[in-house]
Amino acid sequence: MKNEVKKAAANCESCVFYDYDEDWDSYVCTVNLDQDEMAGFLSGNTRTCPYYRFYDEYKSVQKQI
């Protein structure tokens, strides 16, 4: 079960911070990383994203009801 969590955490498409940027005409991560975090990310030293949060659009709809 632990492997399933790691796989899900690596999927940016289901993350809250993965948004479409009209200027770049593509999807980008909107988390502001500092220089050390960005270096670790670009070098591939991180296994999973520490900022990953699953985006559930139905959760916000349930609050409206």
Describe the structure.
The chain is α+β, with helices and mostly antiparallel strands and 65 residues long. Helices cover 38% and strands 12% of the residues. Strand 1 and strand 2 form a beta hairpin. The N terminus is likely disordered.
Note the topology.
Layout: H1 2-9, E1 18-21, E2 26-29, H2 35-43, H3 57-64
Antiparallel strand pairs: 1-2
Q: What's the SSE pattern?
A: HEEHH
Helix content: 25-40%
Number of strands: 2
Strand order of the largest sheet: 1-2
Figure out the total of helices: 3
Question: Care to give the gist of this entry?
Answer:
The chain has helices spanning 2-9, 35-43, 57-64; strands spanning 18-21, 26-29.
What are the defining features of this structure?
65 residues, alpha+beta, two-stranded antiparallel sheet
